[in-house]
Structures are given as structure tokens and as C-alpha cells.
Amino acid sequence: MNDLMTQIEQNKKEIESSVVTNKEELEAFRIKYLGTKGIVKAIMGEMKNVPVEQKKDAGQLLNEFKIFTEAAFENFSNAVESKADQIDFNMDLSLPGQPINIGARHPISIVHNKIISIFQRLGFSVAEGPEIEDDWHNFTALNLPENHPARDMQDTFYISQNPDWLLRTHTSSAQIRAMEKGELPLRIICPGRVYRNETISARAHCFFNQVEGLYIAENVSFADLKQTLYFFVKEMFGENVKVRFRPSYFPFTEPSAEMDISCLICGGEGCSVCKRTGWVEILGCGMVHPSVLDNCGIDSKKYTGFAFGMGIERITMLTYQVKDLRLFSENDVRFLKQFTSAI
Ligand code: DAH
Asked: Does 172 contact ligand 1 (Cβ within 6 A)?
């Protein structure tokens, strides 16, 4: 027992005078005292030589020694950790730092902002609506009653809990919401994400972005529509771009048209992008159908209006000559970092 006490006292003194300044020394301390072959275990092993009547006191002494050693280790460990957090004043401040990657606007956002700013200069303001819509705002109010064949043009995602809810297939639904408010004249653009149940390919995705426009006042004519879109195209693509309108069909406009611009890649001579026609389609448009105005409580005898809608992805692909629409949603930094400045 006396032998044991002397050993413990000696080790305690040694521990008290130990110097631990780094992780290596800390580990050496742990192995020496607290390791499986360390001093604490070794002294404990000597318990078997202590006479039975002294075992209780010896056990207590040993336990105290173990706690003492563990506490010392804990203190050294904390000291080493906090030292690691401190600034190393010997470091070489002339070394180059870690490069910080600078973010860039997404090409869709760049084009989205540019489209909006062009129309804002013509007095249009931005109106937004929900992405989860009801049947009325997305279809019925736009002259697309249930079972109308034109609904097939926009293959739709429905919400299973409530078949009246769907993911909007165009932002025309936001136009209906704006018209229902009844504040006239109305001159708005509706940007936003839309969804269609389409097979994903280089030219189609199950979601994309649109900007739709609407102007309702007294005496708005097709000439106003043409002039507005003409201005937009010149601002967006430059003075030399040619424009043509082709008759088309949309249930919510009458007459309806599709607008093409001369191909930016081949300048109108014919290439694979314009399918050798020299023209690429960029938007749909027309005069708002009187029943759509009536559906929204607007007097169609007094007011007329025009509307148009375009896909931002399509405009972006033409602007930057991007051939595959999937690149816009893959988040590949090698693609995205090419768009570091606004156009
Ligand atoms: N909503 C149509 C679509 O998503 C695009 C469109 C065509 C919008 C004509 C209009 C319009 O406002 O007048 O395919």
C-alpha cells in the first residue's frame, strides 16, 4: 500500500510539471498515462497485491489519481485547441490568398431583366400571379372551357388533392387576375415560371419562363400591338433584325398571330437553327378576345386590348446562341460562368 501511494505521488508531481504545447505532445501524454499500456492502467494492475483490508482505501486513492490524470489531459487538450485557433504571427502574409469565386447572373435572369426594362420604358408595369393556379384563371376565363381541344396544346400537371388546381401552363393566368381587379387602362407584363408535362429535350422542358404582356384601353388596335413588338425586337436584338407576323390561333385572342424574326445566326439566308427558312418564331400575340374581357367584368364594347406571350428560354437561346435548353437548369458552373456581365 505504501508503495502504491509513493508511486501515485511521484506520478502526480510529474504530471504537474509536464509541458504540453502541441497535438503531438498531447497524444504522447495520453499514451503515457491513459493509454491501454499506460501508467494509470499499470498502477491499477497492482491492486491485486494490496492486502484485503487495505483494498478499499487503495481503490479510492487509485480512483482519485485516475480522475486527476484525466482532468490534466482535458486541460492540456483545451489549451492546445485554443492555441490552434490563434493567429500565427509567423505566417507569410505575402502568399496569395484562396481565390473567391464571384457569382454571375443566370443568363435567363439577364434576359428576363432586359425584357422587363424594355417594356417598362413603354409604360408597362410588372404584375405577378401564383404558380399553382385554379382552372378558371389558367383556362376557363381565357376561353378554354373544359374539354376544349386547345387545352391539349398545353399538357398540364394537375394537383392530385384538388383537380381544380394545377401548375400554371402560361402566365396569361396572371393577366386574368390583373383584369379582374378592374383598374383600367391596364398596361402590364407578367413574367414567371410555367409548367408543362412535356418530354424533356434540347428544345422543351417540363418548366420554363415566360413574359406575357397585356394592354387594355379604349381604341387599342392591332397597329399598336405591331408597333410595340417592333420596338421590343429592335431594342432586344438590334436595328437590323427583320420582323414578320403570321396568322395563328389562340382561343383568347382574335385575330391571333405569331411573330418571327430574321434568323440571328445566318442573317436570314437559311441554316439549321432556322430550319433553312431564314426565320425563327419568338412569340404569340393577338387582340384580346371580347369574351375574355367580359369574363373579367370589362366592357368589351368600350375597351379593346392586345396581348402577347414569349418564352424567355427561346429569347436567351437566340441571344447567346445556346443550342440546348437543358443547359439552363443543369447548374453547370462551366456553362454559367460565361455570363459574367449584363447584356
Ligand atoms: N399563352 C400562350 C402560350 O403560352 C402565349 C400567348 C399567345 C400569350 C398569345 C398571349 C397571346 O397573351 O396573346 O403558348
From this structure: yes
